[in-house]
Specification:
single chain; 4 helices; 45% helix; globular
């Protein structure tokens, strides 16, 4: 399976792991699960270090449409490995209009720290 996920409802946190090549059907299953769990506004950690660095037009359309439909899609921290994948991740972020709420990282620790800082900001408001 190319997409695995867990939702922590108490912390309003989603962790998504991509391995190999993700197909459109797998991406749709993830978004169906996200919506069924009402986890769209959760902070999301996407670990794509083991994913195949490729953006498929069908997946891009699916993800763009699903995220655009969310009232509050929540922040996304994407962890990638390598300059080529970093460029693809940034292109993807621009395509889904997620620049303000999304960051690309090279380590899980940095990504978690950013998401935790956002959680602390939300709690203190």
């Amino acid at each position: 399976m190319a997409v695995r996920w867990t939702f922590d409802h108490a912390r309003k946190f989603a962790e998504i792991v991509l391995t190999g090549e993700t197909g459109e059907e797998e991406a749709a299953r993830f978004f169906d699960a996200l919506e069924a769990a009402n986890a769209q506004p959760y902070r999301k950690l996407v670990d794509a270090r083991e994913a195949v660095p490729k953006i498929d037009e069908g997946i891009l359309k699916l993800v763009t449409a699903r995220i655009a439909a969310y009232r509050n899609p929540g922040p996304i921290a994407a962890v990638v490995d390598g300059a080529y994948f970093d460029g693809l991740a940034r292109l993807f972020i621009l395509a889904v209009d997620a620049e303000r709420r999304t960051r690309v990282f090279r380590s899980i620790e940095e990504a978690r720290a950013w998401l935790e800082a956002l959680e602390r900001e939300t709690i203190s408001q």
